[in-house]
Amino acid sequence: MQFSGGMRKKLRLGGDQRKASYPHSLQFYLEPPSENISLIEFESLAIDRVKLLKAVENLGVSYVKGIEPYQSKLENEIRRLKFSFRESLEDEYEPRRKDHISHFILRLAYCQSEDLRRWFIQQEMDLLRFRFSILPKDKIRNFLKDSHLQFEAISDDEKSLRVQEILASSPSLCGSKLDLDSESVYKIPFADALDLFRGRKVYLEGGFAYVPLRDIVAIVLNEFRAKLSKALALTARSLPAVQSDERLQPLLNHLSHSYTGQDYSIQKNAGKISLDQIDSLSTKSFPPCMRQLHKALRENHHLRHGGRMQYGLFLKGIGLTLEQALQFWKQEFIRGKMDPDKFDKGYSYNIRHSFGKEGKRTDYTPFSCLKIILTNPPGQGDYHGCPFRHSDPELLKQKLQSYKISPAGINQILDLVKGTHYQVACQKYFEMIHNVDDCGFSLNHPNQFFFESQRILNGSKDIRKESIQPETPQPKPSVQKTKDASSALAYLNSSLEMDMEGLEDYFSE
Hints:
mainly alpha; two-stranded parallel sheet; elongated
């Protein structure tokens, strides 16, 4: 793959060539892409795939995989982001091309640590499982062949000799001989069918597993996981060479932790909230992280810098003006016996700075969930951070009890926390306090929590986040790094002569 700052030199392929490039709606990503793309498209494709994998993760913990709600919601998400998913659709070249290139871009971003690799592999496996589940039976054999999975289907005579054993060992057939008669059965080495063996879902004989076609997905996923895991390890070894390229480094550095939702730094609701409303709103519409900070501020009349930044930018995002923010913080700190002059000299500058009125005039952005979870963990005496990520489970349980969450609901949330699904745990909390079965969105931002809460409580009236700019990524580290990445990208896009050849070398030995 080559990159340039100019327009991408699109390959002009005829109908047969386009079809041959991507014969299926799913693939094992065995060959890296080899065409030229612009850096703008590089970033766009990567962000769309991050959104898709985040949706896969969210749906995977919200629904049982494979059931109708999971299937339909994931299909809708794939369709919305314009990725490939169905074999029978016409002119699937562009969605399949997007799927292919974006997967390899994310390999570069998600090979950097064991946690990132594990997360990436799991979401890619779930995506492959979904696509395989809707693959027509007559296409499965060709897909297996194209993926270098040379599984041999046994003859009808061999199948008839083992019909009772296969029926008894394969729960998916439900004991139906009619189902087995119309189903291909594959003879696969035992070592390739360990997952089915562990679950006692396969017939073994002579060192081979006899797997009905409908159960072959377990074998396919095992092969995919092994190949992708090895590929990520190889990519990680070549990562220093990629990171040394000043055009890609700022993009890859923030991609794996980037926020891809709406931009809450633009105050469409400035002045629509009064200071008298904040106490009431904190119990009804604040996410736990901000509810915790508000409670600590009211009790202690002070917050440390990390808490002031996290809470202050959140309040700015929900509609507090600079004048209201100065009044709010000053009144509270004075209650803590702070001298008004000391506040004016030591704290008001920082508040004005966060609104872009001092220093470099940077208009700071409210923190996303990922930034709160992944950066600046709270220490002793701090109240910032994410309660689901940074609280002791027993303290979190007590906090949820004080919020009137039912015992069954608390157990659900704690199970999600145990599985490190912190944002989904917060989303489950949202559904419980608003008494809805499905909130209809993936929670990625504290301000999103607030505006969605107000939408439900007020029937889309009053305090309502208006439609804002198209969704843009928010790098995790800091505003300064965001500026660095933006300026670097501007530089990259203006450099028309710089091509990097042989990126495919980074995905192989």
